[in-house]
Structure formats: C-alpha cells, structure tokens
Amino acid sequence: MNPLKPLRRIFGVENALPDGVVEPSAGDDPVPLAQTVLRLDRLELTNVFGFEHAAFHFDGSFNLIVGVNGCGKTSLLQAIVGAVALPVNGVSAVRNYWIMDNLRNVRSTVRETKDGRVRLEKIFPARLDAKGVINQKDYDWFMERTSESSTAVERTNGLLSALEPVVRSAESLLPVVAFYSSDRRWNLNDRIRPEEAVDEPDKRSDGYTGWMNASSDMAGLQKWVTAKSLERLESVSRFVGVQSSELFKDDELGIVNRAVALALPGSMGLSFDMRFRKLVVIWSDREPTAFEDLSDGQRGVCALVADIARRMCLLNPQAGPNVTRDTPGVVVIDELDMHLHPAWQRRIVGVLRKAFPRVQFFAATHSPLIIGEVPSSNILLLRRDGRSTHPERSYGLDSNEVLEEVMGSSSRNDAVTNSLVEIHRLLDSEMVADAQSRLDSLKADVGEIPEVIQLQSEIESLRMLGDSDE
C-alpha cells in the first residue's frame, strides 16, 4: 500500500497522484484540471492617478515596469489592482474594492483663481478601461467618475458573476490575486498562540484575505504554517513507521516549502518550532533560523514566495501537489528588488516564473540586474508623459549597459566622466603634460580603473613618439 494514501485522505487530495506517478517539475507543461484563467490584457487610464491619458498592453506571463522616479510605476500597479479587483469583488466573503470610490485616485491640477490664489482641483471625467480573459472568455469593462459629488459608474458585462460557477465547482481552479506593496515588512505577531492557528478550518475564500495589501497578512501566513506543522505532528502520531520525507512530501506545507526552497538556496522551507514557539526556516546544512532573525532580503523573498503558494493551497486544495504549477492568477509586486542581494536580484524573476508558471506577474523595479534578466518584450518602459515603450534590447545586458541603453542614465559618476572627457580633450590637443596632471589627480580618487590604465598607456605612447621625433 502506498503510505501517502492515508495522508492524502487527511488533506483532501486523495486522487492527486496515482501510485507510481512521479510529480512533474515546475518546467513541465501544466496538466489542466479546469481551464480557469484570469488575465489582464489591456488597460487604458484617463485622469486616473497622475495619468492624463495612457494605454498599456500586457504580456500574459511577466510584465516588468521600469522608469525613473515620478513616472508612475506605483500608480500603474495600483490601477492594475483596481482593474482585477472587479472579478474578485464577485467572490463572496471578499471585501469589495472600487478604485473610483476614492477621490485621491483622480488626477489633480493646480489652478489659479482670479484673485491670484492657487488651489488644487480634480479633473473629470476619470475613467479606467480594461480588457482581459476570465474562464477562457473575453471581457471588457470600465469604471468612471464624472464629478466629486457623483458616485462611480461601472460597466462589468457580467464580470462580477464570472467567478461564481468556479467557486461552486469543487474541481475548478480559482485564480490567485495578490498585491505586494513597497511598504511590506513581514513582521511576526508574537501574541499568536499555537492553539489559535487551528481555531477554524480553512475556506477557499481565505486565499483572498487581505489580497490588496498581501504582506499585511503576515499573521495569516504565520498561523497557516503553524497549523500545518501541528497537522504534521498529528499525522506522525497516526502513522508511526512511515518515513517523514515520504509522509510529508505532498502535504500543503511541503508544497509551499518546495517553492521556498527555489527562492532560498539551501533551505528546506518553513516550519513552526514547538520548542521555541517560533516560525523558523529549516536548512539542509545548518541549524534552523528563526524567521525574525533572517536578513531583510531573506525574509522578504521567503515570505513573498510562501504567501503566494499558501494562497494557492487555500484556493485550490483539490489540485494536490501540482497546485503551484496549475493555479492561474494575477500577482502585483512593487519594488521587486527591495532588500535583495545583487545575486538574488538576478534570480528573482526566474524563481517566480518557475515556481508559479501560470501566474501573470506585474512588478516594478529600479534594478539594472533584474532588467538584464528579462527579455525586452516583457518590459514596459514608462516615460514621464505617460507613454510606455519596450526597450530595443535588455536580456543579457550588463548593469552599465542597462543604465545607459534602457534607463537613459550614466553608468559612471558625472565628475569622473567629466574628468575622462577633459583628459581625452587634452590629449587630442597634444597637451600631454596637462593630461598627465589631470590623470594623476583622477587616479588618486578612483585608483587604477581600466580607463585610467588605458589613458596612461596612451600618454606613454605619445611621449615615446615625441622622443623618436627628436
């Protein structure tokens, strides 16, 4: 008898995998349980946030939003959240969110009155138009507000009820939806007791709890890991003699921990340590580390990946060990590079796409390292005037090339650049002594960087040519 059979029955995934079938890797083609899709294809904004008028077309897998400060990256992400909120509003037990209800989301302008005073006025109409796919069906919808005193008007074309049959069907896959803002801290709640974690059974709609500011629900992740750890202890007491590695390979905590292991090299995932009453990260080569003692970068990437996977497990328990592979949805992340070590910045996009291959990601970043890991077709380069373009190239560029070609910024300190330009000018004018003096001064500041060595070689060559002419 397969020792996993009883455990699958406990976790409600009895028919997830037949005996002898090896779980596919994240890179394999998904096996659809039900073709449930949530995808945003197009967004048009008129007087929403800082956009006078702007239209955006999105990739179905990964969208990296890039631009200088003040170009509207966060505003675009918030508008995306407002657009995908409509179908989620139709799911029971989820707090409704209507982006046009808040006047702060309407564009403002400064106007001068006849008596010379200046005041800030809202500009109307403010409108959001969206186009996307839900359950293999095309939808288009809009939300509009025409004045400060008016209420928001929306045309949803049946969008609010689009997910209702999915919720009612035990076999359908609900899409994950989550927004991780730039103020995510992932702070633990020390007042949560283990017994509180098992107060109530999980519901599918719990996967949408706090989705509009997902990192604020750290208590939800903390209680979930605690509850699953306690379930494991109960399972061990029932199935003495079964190796724990086999017993827990396909339980929900094991599924989440496989995603965490992708994000944190050397880790084996999260657990609740009963000895210390703490959430910990388990490592393959050292003692566990308390979650609160991780670096900001480790804690951020671990919690981000674990929370997405946890929400998928809540939404689609019937999907079994393939839930992270098969669950579709939309995940929005502001400042993807926040607190990440440069080496992790290079890996993060690949980790997310491998761990959650059917999710449509929207992420903003300033990091040249991340940009250099993403094809140009997956990058939206925002301009201050609201226009967006794809860079000519991005994938494979080094950081200096990304800064200059994609972000339009100098890859070098301006003072150093000006000194190098001046030294070249002096050499072109055959003012070798002056060039040497400027080069010596620059070398004292920056050391023997390649450009300094090259210029010194040019000066030596010019001196040798001058000596031979004599």
TrEMBL record:
It holds the Pfam family AAA_23. InterPro entries: AAA+_ATPase, ATPase_AAA_core, Bact_Antivir_Def_Nuclease, P-loop_NTPase, Rad50/SbcC_AAA. Residues 59-386 form the AAA+ ATPase domain. GO terms for biological process: double-strand break repair. One of its GO terms (molecular function) is ATP hydrolysis activity. This is Predicted ATP-binding protein involved in virulence. Keywords: ATP-binding, Nucleotide-binding.
